[in-house]
Design brief:
This protein is of the alpha/beta class. Helix content is 33%, strand content 21%. Strand 16 and strand 17 form a beta hairpin.
């Protein structure tokens, strides 16, 4: 490649580079070349590989802006060709994107399932745009689309569907690149205080959730003129510190070792210091202090450290000296690294994981997991790592998947057809089927969202995005119908986005609804003669409704105490409405026969409409006047 550049054959050099790395302008910006390729360079002055990775694709875009489209213009749609089996890729971070690109280039039909509404994973939400422009991520996505790759956003594998669901949908192989999105904390006193948050949350709110916009209500702590400390010394700490500084904060990085031991890239730390950020080395927080009335953090007690003997990482271990300092602080950002995302492992008990929660590789030299045909890479298997290491894992997994395919042509075509249909359903617009005004300022929406309706459980919520550049709104699922493929949402117009949602007419589509999210309610059969009491009025009734229904289905006796400010504000209480229909269970003196409850459970698993028919048939009748069931 370097020889081709020296001869002026820039396009050939770029093609050679992209054969192994389709993300050169991404890795050239975010990877620690000084520790990797440049760190082992044999030249006296290491060759700046990162600068070459920047230069080649940027030059090509300037001199040949239509080059990518022309390059892939003759590529046959792999879904139409159906000559290779379909592959599902979970996560659109660096490992997932390179895996998708390489497989698509070889003619495999691929679908990338991404939990967020924007593609790129940690490249998008975890790295500020001043360090990694989003258009570079979009460039890679565009190439995959031109090769026939499909993308399904707002799809949380492990919640919306399981790995087994994807296999059942026809996908021959699955690559899991879900990253490390679970932030670590120090478990010291005061971490519960307001304005103590992870760098992961802080950066996501800024980069992805419109937290900077004054006309939105996404919570973002005020930083202008405030005292901000960032705990940690890695690249994420630098990103958080520089972001907070650009928001007007007086930023101090607190690190328990010295500058020499910091794992951040040298240039990132230098940029931070150039921007006026202060480094307070050999300091470690031991407690956060807060205002007792407001609950907000106001100060941090830090221990003065000194370096002792080297630890397992080879760096000298920080040792407390017994001396402490108190620092005034308005915002604490914890940048202590992340653990692997737990959603996949929690939804698939057959998947072997390490004690740190990372996905185990089945054998050395392979990216395959303990599940046959399921591969992984990047932070999901490594823990916190670098984009180039993740890309390498995605490439290695692609090579394995490209190996011998033990399927007949008929089986391949069948799988492609099923996976294509599933992908199209998953990516279909989530349109408003109907809406009604429940009371002043409160609207109920019935939305076409078949996969969420199929997976929903009582007590769960969804993440709603009204438009592409909108604000993410969490809403508890009020109801769902798996048979009809719809979910019900109740929205009170109290802020910019909720008012905007309530103005959406029937036929409009949300930019994205992700879920179902959260842990379902834990519902158990109660002893005969006991009563489960719910208190829920007004906007509290929709979240309680599915949980009440679940109790009724397993035969529990339920009493609802529901209060409204006035009769005009009451909803769902009529004889033909949800609360009225639930009264079909009756005020039973004991329990019905076990087989009746079993029938109801089976009917509920099918759909609410079948459940209602079954409840009538089994003799569970309404006792509307008392509202007791």
């Amino acid at each position: 490649m370097i020889e081709l550049i020296g001869k002026g054959n820039f396009r050939e050099a770029l093609e050679l580079m992209e054969d192994s790395n389709p993300l050169p302008d991404v890795t050239g910006r975010v990877c620690p070349q000084e520790l990797q390729c440049q760190g082992v360079c044999l030249q006296k002055l290491p060759i700046a590989i990162g600068q070459l990775e920047w230069f080649l694709p940027e030059r090509e875009k300037l001199v040949n802006p239509e080059g990518v489209a022309r390059k892939f213009a003759g590529v046959r749609d792999p879904w139409e060709a159906a000559s290779h089996p379909p592959v599902a890729i979970v996560g659109s971070g660096p490992s997932g994107l390179i895996n998708a690109y390489l497989l698509s280039a070889e003619g495999f039909p691929v679908t990338v399932f991404e939990a967020f509404h924007a593609l790129g994973g940690v490249l998008r939400y975890g790295i500020p745009e001043f360090r990694l422009p989003n258009e570079l991520i979009d460039d890679v996505v565009a190439k995959i689309r031109l090769l026939g790759g499909k993308f399904v956003q707002n799809f949380v594998v492990g919640k919306t569907a399981t790995l087994q669901d994807l296999r059942d949908a026809g996908f021959y192989r699955i690559f899991v690149g879900t990253g490390a999105g679970l932030p670590r904390f120090m478990n010291i006193p005061g971490e519960h205080l307001l304005n103590v948050m992870s760098a992961n949350e802080f950066l996501t709110r800024v980069n992805l959730m419109q937290g900077l916009r004054a006309d939105y209500e996404t919570p973002l702590p005020e930083t202008k003129g405030k005292e901000v400390i960032v705990i940690g010394g890695g690249n994420t700490a630098m990103d958080a510190a520089r972001t907070a500084r650009r928001l007007g904060g007086n930023v101090t990085i607190v690190y328990r070792r010295t500058r020499k031991e910091m794992p951040a890239r040298v240039e990132e730390l230098e940029h931070a210091l150039e921007e006026g950020i202060v480094l307070k080395a050999l300091r470690a927080p031991s407690e956060f202090l807060g205002d007792q009335e407001t609950g907000f953090v106001s100060a941090a007690t830090v221990e003065v450290m000194e370096l002792g003997e080297p630890d397992a990482s080879g760096r000298r271990r920080p040792v407390a000296t017994g001396t402490t300092e108190v620092i005034k602080v308005d915002l604490v950002i914890m940048a202590l690294g992340n653990d692997a995302n737990p959603i996949i492992k929690d939804s698939e008990p057959r998947l072997h994981t390490s004690k740190w929660g990372t996905i185990d590789l089945d054998h050395k030299g392979s990216q395959e997991t303990s599940l046959d045909g399921v591969y992984t890479g990047g932070d999901a298997s490594r823990g916190g790592s670098t984009a180039i290491m993740a890309a390498g894992d995605g490439q290695a997994a692609a090579r394995e998947i490209l190996g011998a395919v033990d399927l007949t042509p008929e089986d391949i075509r069948s799988r492609v057809s099923r996976a294509r249909e599933y992908s199209d359903v998953a990516a279909a617009a989530q349109r408003i089927v109907s809406k009604s005004e429940l009371s002043d300022g409160i609207e109920e929406f019935t939305v076409h969202s078949p996969l969420i309706a199929r997976a929903a459980k009582p007590g769960q919520f969804v993440r709603v995005l009204p438009r592409p550049d909108g604000e993410l709104i969490p809403l508890t699922l009020a109801d769902w119908d798996a048979e009809a493929g719809t979910i019900s949402l109740v929205v009170q117009g109290v802020g910019t986005s909720s008012i905007e949602i309530n103005q959406m007419p029937v036929g409009d589509a949300f930019a994205g609804i992700a879920g179902p999210l959260g842990r379902p309610s834990d519902v158990h059969e109660q002893p005969a003669g006991s009563t489960v009491v719910f208190t829920a009025g007004g906007l509290g009734l929709p979240p309680a409704f599915p949980i009440i229904r679940e109790h009724l289905e397993i035969g529990n006796h339920v009493t609802l105490v529901s209060g409204f400010r006035s009769r005009d504000l009451m909803f769902w209480t009529g004889p033909d409405e949800r609360v009225g229909l639930q009264a079909e269970f009756g005020d039973q003196p004991g329990r019905r026969l076990h087989h009746q409850r079993r029938q109801l459970r089976r009917a509920r698993a099918s759909s609410p409409s079948r459940w209602r028919r079954c409840s009538r048939r089994t003799g569970w009748v309404r006792d509307a006047p008392s509202r007791r069931w």
